[in-house]
Amino acid sequence: MSYDYSKLFEKIIEVIGAEVSTTQRMLAVIEECSRQKPHPDWELLASINFEADGPAIRHWLSSAFETLEPKSVHGLWFGLVNLSDGNSTTADVYVGGSPNFDEEGIDWASEITSITELSYLNSIVLHDIYTIAYRTGTGHLGNDAEYPLALAYGAIAAIQALRDDGLLASNLSSVKGAASGFDSGDFLFLGAVEDGHFHTRIKAG
Fold first, then answer.
1. Is 181 left (phi over 0), alpha (psi -120 to 50) or beta?
2. Model confidence over 31-82: pLDDT tens digits?
3. Predicted local distance difference test score (pLDDT) of residue 71
4. How far is CA 96 from the centre of its chain?
5. What are the boundaries of each domain within the chain?
6. Distance (Å) of CA 61 to CA 23, 106, 107, 163
7. Which segments within 112-196 are labelled E, that is strand?
8. Which pLDDT score is estimated for 68?
9. What distances in angstroms separate CA 62 from CA 3, 68, 158, one per listed residue?
10. SS3 for 81-125, per residue?
11. 3-state class of 137 per DSSP?
12. Contact (CB, 8 A) for 193 and 165
């Protein structure tokens, strides 16, 4: 049975903009996924510590853009990717800056600045999602878990970084907006930056 993706996307967008904890938002997505596609592994996914990346998120933008020349970035792209060392694979999210931004399209995200190791969150949460989604054995959830949970969490982490990191008022003062999603798939516009402050306005890309 496949998802009703319109309802799933609607729930993800609703959850991302909610003024509650990361854990509460992720559990709401898991509840919707479980309702549409019952599976025992949703309980394992619900046990993840969704607050584990908090300290890293607070310094994510500062680390990624510490050598950035002011006023050189108009759009921020938070890209979800799978990384492999040849022996194992995981999921992570990176941030890149583009000299352009357009909330009506995503072509600007192909112009992001060079990505370095500091661009990656090294997310504990996304690693745990991927590990459980593709855990050893038959009948795992696979992409049915990775897709909705990574999409939701990547956006939640990005918005938290944009709100917590004071870089928007200095090196990133030229930023107009941000989007997040899979480098090769679905994405979300997250909102706009006005007077050095990020304002959440989520919509599907």
1. left
2. 999 999 999 999 999 999 999 999 999 889 988 887 666 567 899 999 999 9
3. 67
4. 13
5. 5-204
6. 22, 21, 22, 11
7. 177-182, 187-194
8. 62
9. 38, 10, 13
10. EEEECCCCEEEEEEEEEECCCCCCCCHHHHHCCCCCHHHECCCHH
11. coil
12. no
Query: Average of pLDDT values for 193-197?
Result: 80
Could you give the 3-state DSSP secondary structure of residue 6? helix
**Residue 126 structure tokens:** 């996304």
Please give the structure tokens belonging to residue 195.
Answer: 């007077």
DSSP alpha helices (H): ranges in the chain? 5-16, 22-36, 41-46, 54-58, 60-64, 124-133, 143-164
Tokens 């600045």 found at: 113
CB atoms within 10 A of CB 83: 15
First to last CA, the chain: 25
Alpha-carbon span 5 to 144, nearest angstrom: 11
Cα dihedral sign for 190, 196, 197, 201? negative
Torsion sign (Cα): 17, 18, 21, 24: negative
